Fold Flavodoxin-like domain-containing protein.
Amino acid sequence: MDPPLATWDFSPLISLWINRFYIYLGFAFGISLWICFQIAIRKQLFIFKDKNSQEKSVPKTTQDLMTNSYISLQKKEIFVSGVKIFYGSQTGTAKGFATVLAEAITSLDLPVAVIDLKEYDPDDHLVEEVTSKSICAFLVATYTDGRPTESAEWFCQWLKEASTDFRFGKTYLKGMRYAVFGLGNSAYASHFNKVGKNVDKWLWMLGAHRIMTRGEGDCDVVKSKQGNIEADFRAWKTKFISQLQILRKGEKKPCDGNCKKGKCKSNEHISEEIETGSHAQDGLHQRDTEEEEPFESTSEEEPDTEDHQSLSSVVDVEDLGKIMNRVKKEKREMEHKEEKTGLFRNTVKNEASERRAMITPALREALTKQGYQLIGSHSGVKLCRWTKLMLRGRGGCYKHTFYGIESHRCMETTPSLACANKCVFCWR
Ligand SMILES: Cc1cc2nc3c(=O)[nH]c(=O)nc-3n(C[C@H](O)[C@H](O)[C@H](O)COP(=O)(O)O)c2cc1C
């Protein structure tokens, strides 16, 4: 028989119920202790593992591997990413030569692209060659009156204009490497290979680096150097391929001391000049060293003749840069002569030290990065975005919309960097 309900003792349960908060507290305390304990253990384990891995994870072999892979990465530096062969052909000779050249380059395991100049827009793409690490070969034919083929007409027109446009400047294509092979016939004496010569000259004027002397193919079998145009091309091709292999290895042909102006008389002299940076600073001097056979290249003389012409006639504002360069060159020569004779030496030096540049090196760097062409040590100019758009037929700035002023005729210029006014709306 069950005891009656009244006889049951509920007092322990009641006391538990009354003290239930202490029980909860006890549980909570226990759980937090357990968590802290776990965290402490994990931390200890982690420190231990870390120590071990630091000691063991980079064994000598791995270290060696890392060093080796670094070296191999360094070794794998690419000096030539590929070759682009541009051709301007009418009856197919240049095109055929381009194919032959492409095959020869493919056998060297180098990527190659054969491009018809008809399908190439220099305005959009030529500047890519500055950084692309490719070598550009131009095979261009000359036609009546020294004109290019129809397919190369726009390319030549663009190059001609850009090379004399001060807004592009002398360094627009700096970094681009190229070689030219012209196709022509010496029977057309006054216009023999004119297109090849011009393309070579214009690229050079824009600052591109000529990797070898221009080749001249001559259809006149009597006058042709190698007997016929095919042989002329083969000779040029052989030279091109060997030059390509040199460049591919990252080797640079040292100056052989046969510079036109005789400024690099010995290799010792060159290294001195490179160290002092005079070669890098003086574009003309650098170009001297690039000439393999200076007598064949006309690029250096021709701009000068143009300068003479421009001086004798009405001066175009766009030619001012060239003229200034000539004046500076003459001044330098004069100073050089004076220094030689010992006359006025001290005065010249004092003047030079007194002259203070208005553009600080930091400002110069920043402006150049922004695309400004700096003139002397005082002014900077840049073609405005609206002008570019206007020239491309893609609209203009608000002055066009509101007042009908065509952007490329807009004369809002504040080229002097020394301007002390702080006008609110000045673009600077
Ligand atoms: C009508 C005509 C005019 C030419 N005019 C010239 C010229 O002025 N100067 C020149 O060096 N070669 C001239 N040539 C020679 C071509 O440049 C040469 O034949 C070249 O190999 C043609 O190349 P292509 O077959 O790729 O078009 C002329 C050829 C032709 C047919």
